[in-house]
Amino acid sequence: MTIKVGDKMPSGTFGVMTDAGPGAVSSEELFAGKKVVLVSVPGAFTPTCSMNHLPGFVDQADDLMSKGVDTIACMAVNDVFVMDAWGKDRGVGSKVMMLADGNAEYAKALGLELDASGFGMGIRGQRFAIVVDDGVATHVAVEQPGEFEVSKAEAILAQL
């Protein structure tokens, strides 16, 4: 079943890079008591994701935070090393938390997985953005295939 407004975010764990190496953060740690914008992209280093989607959230981070957002997190079905390298490549710094959903478990728990096998990419997460307030989805913006409108930073900023 696909996540919708009013639903509690599913439990899960994301890979994150720490100063000591690969680590993990639970969905409870990520969402409890905070307003979070969870952005999902089909893949790190892919064209739209690298040139538009992630950079938009980096560029709009201060504006999003001024609207009460505590954390901006970008999730992709990649490993923690790739997500860390991509974040460094895109200069996210501390503006965006890079989350690895290596086996697409969280994308599947949200009901937002994408079969990109036809492109040689296997199971991925769809392109989306969810505004989460204390563990509850308050805005869910899922892109139609090939689109990039409702989940971009400017569209999410307009919803806050």
UniProtKB/TrEMBL annotation:
UniProt GO cellular component terms: cytoplasm
InterPro entries attached to this UniProt entry: PRX5-like (IPR037944), Redoxin (IPR013740), Thioredoxin-like_sf (IPR036249), Thioredoxin_domain (IPR013766)
EC number from the UniProt entry: 1.11.1.27
Gene3D superfamilies: Glutaredoxin
Keywords in alphabetical order: Antioxidant, Oxidoreductase, Peroxidase, Redox-active center
Family, per entry: Belongs to the peroxiredoxin family. Prx5 subfamily.
Active site positions, chain numbering: C49 (cysteine sulfenic acid (-soh) intermediate)
Residue ranges of domain Thioredoxin in the record: 3-160
CDD domains from the UniProt entry: PRX5_like
UniProt keyword annotation of Iron present: no
Molecular-function GO term, any one: thioredoxin peroxidase activity
Taxonomic source organism: Woeseia oceani
Role noted for this protein: Thiol-specific peroxidase that catalyzes the reduction of hydrogen peroxide and organic hydroperoxides to water and alcohols, respectively. Plays a role in cell protection against oxidative stress by detoxifying peroxides.
Record GO biological process: cell redox homeostasis; cellular response to oxidative stress; hydrogen peroxide catabolic process
Reactions accelerated catalytically: a hydroperoxide + 2 glutathione = an alcohol + glutathione disulfide + H2O
Record carries keyword Oxidoreductase: yes
UniProt name for this protein: Glutathione-dependent peroxiredoxin
